[in-house]
Design a protein that fits this description.
heterodimer, A: 367 residues, alpha+beta, Beta-Lactamase, Immunoglobulin-like, twelve-stranded mixed β-sheet, five-stranded antiparallel β-sheet, B: 1118 residues, six-stranded antiparallel β-sheet, 48 helices, 9% strand, elongated
């Protein structure tokens, strides 16, 4: 299945290679580099490439390319999903998945890869199983019994992330106040499908550590911020005026509010004033970032000012899109509420806790 | 300096142990030493006896490997540490070995013994890791060792070790494909494993080694379906993909009726419909087809196994693993009834919120799906809207999906969405959007004008690329109805002044040329302008200018004659030969000269022919002939190792092949309760269950008869008894069945007779369940066991003959048979033959009396002569040697099913290895086949065709059986040279109407023939077959198999060997030679106290030896 793996940084250096069958020369990556040259953005590199003798399937994560070499038919999603699992495992082991971390722990990463695949077929991909075989660099084994769920809402999409530190074989049942809100769900393999289908509760024996218990999708409207934007031009300069306001946040404060605008190429500079927060304009990438922070509902934050455009250049034909990031603590905008968590099979009393969080994932406003 | 340091280093490298500090001097190694001394410090660390130093060294080495640096020169130093006690060091050494063993094969062998030891470790994790590393070392020399290790691990107690064995199979296969046969055996064994841990891995091995052996799946199908949800995610993907293929070969198309109906009522008339209208020409044929169609239109009933698969995979749509979701989605797309496919849409849409790489793959598949099943994704239209942050390739794919989803109702929404996309800054994406608009316009007539207008507006866009793309698309659209749009053409003509993109210019010129009659005034003017700029144009534009000139010359020569001449002259001296050629060609065609040929008359027709409008098709059309979710589908090209998704079969293959376990257990249970005394025997005989689909009751009947035969015949030979006895019980059940079904059955008289005769049996067997299907099998077996049961008591004999006579025999014949049976016993002592030979004899006799009126069956004769020959041989042999004590008891010939009655549409075929020499060719194994025609009509011209064999194998076909009347049975003998391998011989069995694919696979024991050796000869030969050629196994004999007689009987049943006389009563010896190569096969069973025994097989052919050990072991322990 998966023949070899190359980890490549964004400048095109191979920082790690691993072969599960016979060794394949690095030159196979040249085809990938060629495609990478062509792509404007690293994200634009096609995930699947065909070369005369091999197929290359790659993902881009943490400013790194995980490039796998395939020789025969295999479902591409199989490989992609596995590569993401590799990246997640590295993240889980070392706290982040980056070039530096991998270079520092090259032996451990290599050993992990050895364990995760056998002859190119996944062997052990669960982080709790792997940790039994290869110890993570810091041995921090607290015996605190906690389970915290942090439903994060992004564009009507949520996840329940669990952090479980329970000894023995606890059998947990998590029930919701309003499971009907959940429209489409996917589960960690430990969850029993049957119970969910019949009773809409999550019944599972959890693995140790952090894991994503459930992904869900629920109906609802993802608009929490209203905006009034006028973006027009007169001659060589343009004007910009953006106001952000809250909308149905149920009294909770909107935090970490941030607006990102990709300006047209002709905009040379921006001269703006922000009533709250501060803004930066990157001349090279033409990205305007307005970091607002906490949203003040009394005095709505506003950003206005002029944009200087290239002299003689035609006026940009369309207005740029606004990308808005935000976070709402203590609330899951989906309205999902955890009702209770019960534990069976073990005698001790666990510590339980739940944390709700809403954040915008890909919130775009077309102007 | 340099020399001295090198000296030091070398010394340090070799002697080392006490003084590791040598290597720590970085100056000496780093600066001066040449390559081969580069790693001396590491070598010293590895040679030290401190684990910490070793670990440090190994870490540095592995880091080198990870960075792609060459560390192969350290191999000798590293391999020494393979037996290191420190687990951390050991692990890293393994990592190193796996990486470099291939390059250093000889040195790698040093480590093998460590792994072999590891394989025997009590700790399962150590066993597994030893096997893993051993199988990962790609050194051809150790293939036999790997093979043995895999086989052993496949029957390990720990499922984890068995999983590792499954993983090792493809490794060994890629190292040495010749091991395929043996590996398939291991796969078959592991497929039967019931743990979830193993399932995924073994199916993966199956897919890599023998994906074509779909027959191995039958018996495991239901188990796999039921285990699926608990298998680990990666295994799920592999299993689901394999089961999709399996289902396509075994079940009927659930949408069969729908597609037929669609065809019938669809816009384009099918030939069924049209035929009905005409109905003069080929009325008969027509009717046939009608009937055919009607038959197909019969209400479709889904096979419960098909349903099982759909039901058990559905919850996996909720898996967190995108690959699993995709696998289920493709399974539903390829296998589910139309109405049910919809469930996958939601799950696939969910995947669109995953990583962009996942989106990319999912969208490709959704794009293919939307062409066939648009409705499914329509509710999720908005999920395919494009975000400005999407990577270009995702945008283009989403566009594709949106275009596929467009219909009359949603087109306005989609077009509005497209409009916003056109403003995007990503120009490739804008171009794709314009193309998409064009496709919407061609597909949906209502919006064609709207789209066209929109596109025309784009012609005034500032961006030239947008304009160019629009021109190209407009050109395609205009071709559909040019007359209505002369104003657009005019507008475009004006654009030639501004637009510089060659493709767009060429498109405009082509348009004007093609429709110059619609714009008679403008066209010459455009040509004038173009003539002016001709030399500066791109080639593609130049070609179109020539075209335009030619077309104008033909329609409007007055105005354009000179211009055309001018253009052609310019072209004549162009640098590009294409253009020069084109100019010359066109000049000849259009300009009339004296020499101009006949063609110029047709110039107008040539140039101004009506051209069909281009069809704008999705690039994803027809991609669904690739299995969705596969790499091949994504690339739209067959990737290496891709397994085609077969078309649905016309008629469903026999569903009972999947039965065995499930069905078997049910009747057996009920029976257990009713006859408890027989219970303990039941398990022993897996014997017939393999060859028969639903043999539950039959099987137990078999085993039950064991006890009976044991006591009745007093021979103590259970297996020989079983054949005949089972038939007895079968008969009982059968007659009972018939009682129940009396109304249906016509042959009342005969039955009465029979019932009278069988009364006692019936009474004892009255609880037999009555499944009709089994009947025929039984009949078959009766015939066969008739031939085998001769040595039994007369009672059973006569009964069996009755049963055989059931259909056609007269009582006279029965009597005749009785006589025959009676006449037998006295002949025994006279002939002084071994029981086995006697069996052969009786076989012969029976054949002689074979009452089945099948005189046309010629093979019988040849068969007879064969058996005569052996008989004679046997006689001479036995005369010479055997004392009565060493009589090798006969073994019932095991019979196998070749063709099931249902699959064969009434024709059922069984075969057995008759153990006779095959006279036409001594290298062949004789296979006796018994054909029974259970159908109501006769079968003609039974013969075989299209024999597919592994290299070296040969087949001597049986003579054609010209006629097999209904209800009759015929026997024929064929010879197969298996080349001393257990590879199956595949061929087609043909009747006058049908062909059936069948295969014959020999048990290893049938690949040999008995030879006679004296004790001394045996010992001598054995002495020459030691070492690798000797395999010894310890075993505990089955309780019922502790006497010499039973052992001899079981061994000779398992393999076609003859007994070798032996002085010791603790040892039984057997000898034979393989049929093809005449390699000696020597078997020794030495018994010890309390059932302990030791089995030794000596054989030149190691493979045969190993397999034989397995078979005999099984025979003796069960």
């Amino acid at each position: 299945m998966i023949h070899s793996l190359f980890l490549i940084n964004h400048t095109g250096d191979i920082i790690l290679e691993k072969h599960w069958k016979s060794v394949i020369g690095r030159s196979v990556c040249d085809y990938f580099f060629e495609a990478k040259e062509k792509a404007v953005d690293p994200e634009d590199v096609p995930p699947v490439l065909q070369t005369p003798h091999h197929y290359l399937i790659s993902i881009y994560k943490g400013k790194l390319f995980f490039l796998s070499v395939i020789q025969t038919e295999v479902p591409p999603l199989f490989v992609i999903e596995f590569l993401h699992r590799v990246a997640d495992t590295i993240q889980d082991y070392f706290g982040e998945c980056s070039e530096g971390v991998i270079k520092d722990n090259v032996v451990t990463v290599y050993e992990l890869l050895e364990e995760m695949l056998d002859n190119g077929f996944p062997l052990a991909t669960e982080s709790n199983v792997l940790k039994e075989m290869i110890r993570p660099p810091t041995i921090l084994r607290s015996v605190v019994n906690t389970l915290t769920g942090t439903p994060v809402f992004a564009e009507i999409q949520g996840v329940i992330e669990a952090c479980v530190r329970l000894t023995g074989m606890p059998d947990l049942t998590l029930s919701f106040m309003n499971p009907r809100l959940l429209d489409d769900v996917s589960f960690h393999p430990c969850v029993r499908f049957k119970r969910w289908e019949s009773e809409h509760v999550l019944s599972f024996i959890p693995p140790d550590g952090n894991f994503t218990l459930m992904n869900y999708h629920s109906r609802g409207h993802p608009v929490y911020v209203k905006q009034s934007i006028s973006f027009f031009e007169t001659g060589p300069s343009g004007r910009l005026d953006i106001t952000i306001g809250p909308k149905q946040t149920m009294g909770k404060t909107v935090e970490s509010l941030k607006v990102t605008i990709h300006m047209p190429k002709t905009v040379l500079n921006a001269n703006l004033t922000a009533s709250q927060g501060n803004y930066t304009y990157d001349l090279a990438t033409k990205v305007l970032v307005w970091d607002i922070g906490k949203l003040n509902t009394q005095k709505l934050p506003n950003l206005r000012g002029s944009l200087s455009t290239q002299v003689g250049a035609p006026k940009p034909e369309d207005n740029p899109t606004l990308n808005i990031d935000l976070k709402i603590q203590q609330m899951a905008i989906s309205g999902l509420k955890v009702s209770r968590l019960d534990m069976y099979g073990e005698k001790y009393k666990p510590f339980k806790g739940v944390k709700y969080l809403t954040k915008a994932g890909k919130f775009q406003v077309r102007t | 300096m340099s020399s001295s340091s090198a000296f030091n280093d070398e010394k340090g490298g070799s002697s080392s142990v006490g003084e590791p500090e040598y290597g720590h001097d970085p100056a000496s190694g780093g600066i001066f030493s040449s390559d081969y001394k580069r790693h001396d410090d590491l070598k010293e660390m590895l040679d030290s006896n401190k684990d910490s130093l070793k670990l440090e060294a190994m870490k540095r080495i592995v880091a080198m490997i990870a960075r792609g640096k060459n560390a192969s020169d350290l191999f000798p130093a590293v391999v020494k540490n393979v037996a290191c006690k420190n687990i951390e060091v050991k692990k890293l050494v393994y990592v190193y070995l796996v990486r470099y063993a291939e390059e250093q094969q000889d040195l790698a062998l040093l480590s093998i013994s460590t792994f072999q030891r590891g394989l025997k470790d009590p700790n399962q994790l150590i066993r597994a890791s030893a096997l893993r590393v051993l199988s990962s070392i790609r050194v051809t020399i150790i293939v036999p060792i790997m093979m043995l290790a895999i086989k052993e691990a496949a029957s390990d107690m720990s499922p984890y070790v068995r999983k590792t064995a499954a993983h090792a199979i493809p490794k060994l296969y890629s190292l040495d494909p010749e091991q395929k046969d043996q590996l398939i055996e291991v796969i078959e064994k592991l497929l039967a494993d019931k743990t979830t841990l193993v399932a995924g891995s073994v199916v993966m091995a199956f897919e890599e080694v023998c994906p074509e052996r779909i027959d191995l799946i039958h018996k495991n199908y239901r188990k796999l379906c039921n285990l699926l949800i608990d298998v680990e995610e990666w295994g799920q993907v592999v299993i689901i993909n394999m089961l999709t293929r399996y289902a396509r070969t075994q079940f009927l198309n659930p949408n069969m009726n729908e597609s037929l109906l669609e065809e019938g009522s669809g816009g384009d008339k099918t030939f069924y419909g049209s035929d009905e209208d005409e109905d003069d020409d080929e009325e008969e044929k027509d009717k046939k087809e009608e009937a055919h169609a009607m038959a197909k239109r019969k209400p479709y009933v889904m096979d419960p196994d098909h349903r099982l698969l759909l039901r058990n995979t559905k919850p996996l749509l909720q898996s967190r693993n995108a690959a699993v979701v995709m696998a289920v989605a493709q399974l539903y797309f390829h296998l589910a009834p139309k109405a049910e496919v919809g469930v996958i849409a939601k799950a696939l849409v969910r995947l669109l919120r995953s990583h962009s790489e996942v989106q990319y793959v999912v969208l490709q598949n959704v794009a293919t799906m939307t062409i066939k099943r648009r409705g499914m994704f329509e509710p999720y239209l908005k999920s395919f809207y494009i975000r400005s942050t999407d990577p270009t390739q995702i945008k283009v794919l989403k566009l594709e999906v949106l275009t596929n989803l467009a219909n009359e109702t949603n087109i306005s929404t989609i077009l509005r969405e497209f409009q916003t996309y056109i403003k995007s800054m990503d120009k490739d994406f804008v171009a794709a959007t314009i193309q998409a608009i064009g496709r919407c316009a061609t597909n949906i007539g209502e919006v064609r004008d709207t789209c066209l207008n929109g596109l025309v507006q784009l012609l005034s866009n500032r961006d030239e690329l947008v304009v160019a793309e629009s021109v190209v698309v407009i050109k395609k659209l205009l071709q559909m109805q040019p007359e209505k749009h002369s104003d657009i053409i005019k507008h475009m003509a004006k654009l030639t002044d501004n637009i510089q993109v060659p493709m767009a210019r060429a498109s405009i010129l082509w348009l004007i040329g093609e429709y110059c009659e619609h714009v008679p005034k403008i066209a010459p003017d455009v040509l004038r302008k173009m003539a002016k700029s001709f030399t500066n144009e791109e080639d593609i534009v130049k070609l179109q200018i020539i075209n335009l000139a030619a077309k104008l010359y033909l329609t409007n020569s007055k105005q354009t004659k000179l211009l055309t001449q001018y253009v052609l002259n310019l072209a004549k001296y162009d640098q590009n030969y294409d253009i020069r050629d084109r100019a010359r060609f066109i000049r000849q065609l259009i300009v009339p000269t004296e020499k101009s040929g006949a063609l110029s008359k047709y110039a107008k027709k040539l140039f101004l022919a009506l051209k069909p409008a281009p069809v704008l098709e999705s690039p994803f059309k027809d991609r669904d002939h690739f299995q969705l979710g596969s790499l091949s589908h994504l690339l739209n090209a067959k990737a290496g190792g891709y397994q085609e998704l077969p078309d649905w079969p016309e008629a469903a293959p026999d569903p009972s092949v999947r039965n065995v376990e499930v069905k078997e257990s049910v009747p057996e249970w009920t029976k257990c309760s009713s006859r408890e005394k027989r219970k303990e025997k039941k398990v022993e005989k897996p014997f017939y269950s393999d060859s028969e689909g639903e043999s539950g009751p039959t099987e137990s009947a078999d085993s039950e008869s064991d006890s009976a035969s044991g006591s009745e015949s007093g021979s103590g030979s259970e297996e020989s008894g079983s054949g005949s006895e089972s038939e007895e019980s079968e008969e009982g059940s059968e007659s009972e069945e018939e009682e129940e079904e009396e109304d249906e059955d016509e042959k009342d008289k005969k039955k009465k007779k029979k019932q009278e005769l069988k009364k006692p049996v019936q009474e004892s067997e009255s609880e037999q369940s009555s499944e009709e299907e089994r009947k025929h099998q039984r009949k078959m077996k009766q015939c066969k066991s008739d031939t085998e049961s001769e040595s039994e008591e007369e009672d059973s004999e006569s009964e069996s003959s009755h049963s055989e006579s059931e259909d056609s025999e007269s009582e006279v014949e029965v009597k005749k048979k009785k006589k025959a049976a009676e006449s037998k016993p006295p002949s025994k002592p006279v002939k002084k033959e071994s029981k086995k030979e006697k069996k052969e004899m009786s076989l012969l006799d029976l054949d002689d009396f074979e009452p089945t009126p099948s005189p046309q069956v010629t093979p019988v004769n040849t068969f007879l002569s064969n058996s005569l020959v052996t008989d004679l041989e046997g006689l001479s042999l036995s005369d010479a040697v055997l004392s009565p004590a060493t009589i090798a008891p006969s073994s019932a010939l095991k019979s196998y099913e070749l063709l099931h009655r249902i699959t064969g549409e009434g024709l059922s075929v069984e075969y057995c290895f008759s153990r006779q020499p095959f006279s036409p060719d001594a290298n062949m194994v004789a296979v006796q086949m018994q054909f029974t025609n259970n159908a109501t009509s006769e079968t003609k011209n039974l013969h075989m065709e299209d024999v597919k064999l592994q290299s070296g194998m040969r087949v001597k076909e049986f003579p054609e059986i010209e006629l097999l009347p209904a209800g009759e049975t015929a026997t024929a003998v064929m010879g197969i040279d298996f080349c001393d391998s257990t590879q199956a011989a595949n061929f087609q069995l043909c009747t006058h109407t049908r062909k059936f694919f069948v295969s014959i696979q020999p048990p290893v024991g049938e690949l040999m023939r008995p030879v006679f050796l004296t004790e001394n000869e045996f010992k001598k030969e054995q002495g020459q077959l030691m070492g690798m050629n000797e395999i010894t196994e310890k075993l505990t004999l089955d309780v019922k198999c502790r006497n010499e007689h039973a052992i001899v009987q079981r061994v000779t049943t398992a393999a076609n060997l003859s007994r070798v006389p032996c002085g010791s009563d603790k040892e039984c010896r057997f000898a034979g030679r393989t049929v093809n190569s005449s390699s000696l096969v020597l078997v020794t069973v030495a018994t010890k106290e309390e059932g302990a025994a030791q089995l030794t097989v000596n054989c030149e052919k190691m493979v045969i030896g190993t397999m034989l050990v397995k078979d005999i072991l099984l025979a003796l322990t069960q």
